[in-house]
Design goal:
single chain, globular, Rossmann fold, alpha/beta
Amino acid sequence: MAMATNRSKADDGPDDTAQFAASHSVDAFHHGGFYLVQPEGKGHRAGLDAMLLAALVPDDAAGRLADLGAGAGAAGFAVANRVADLRVALIERSALMVECASRSMELPQNRHLASRISVLQADVALGGRARIAAGLADSLYDHVIMNPPFNDSTDRTTPDDLKAEAHAMTDQMFSQWIRTACAIARPGGQLSLIARPHSLAEIISACDRRFGGLQVTPVHPRPGHNAIRILLTAIKASRARLALCPPLFVHDGTERAFSARVEELSNGRASLKR
């Protein structure tokens, strides 16, 4: 789901290289609460999905948060902008997206957040010693969020290799990512993710014996239409039962504007659960 952002040219931010600035933009989120450096014409550009994912983190969260597959860092920045007591680690394997996130931290508009955000280039799918060697240590984070690639390989393809990597899921992807989330989360830590509804069975299976107390919120474009996303939270080592939560509607009826609820969630004025 795309979300409109306020955009300025990349030369409003850091301009260490003219080539980088010419191919990137600086985009405002949360009505100017923070800004992201993002590639133009290639790769994944953040929108509503990332903002809804960020809204799953409670307002009173504290400690450390890992944003797995962070891309340019939209969800992690959004959480940091709303929740003052969290330190956020943006974890991404693409060198280009890591560069974007690092440059976002250098923007003067993000000075109020930079001290609480770090960037780590690492592959979320790594396991065991390789994962730890990459900097993803065991039992370190109180919150783990993820917006993994969730298009099937048979979905519409794109000639943009970076975008294809960001959008297309691989075999056992949820199992690998949720395995990593469990390893790096502390006991009682919260997992939050956004995905397509058809991935729910795979996600539930991957959470088995790792996370419990799953709460699933279907996201519908408008009343009367099937859900196009699911928002899910779970707690490490919890034995609570799965719960299906009331639906979230992106639009009210035939209106093109966001519903009032999605508007406040997407702009960092509230978490999904007050």
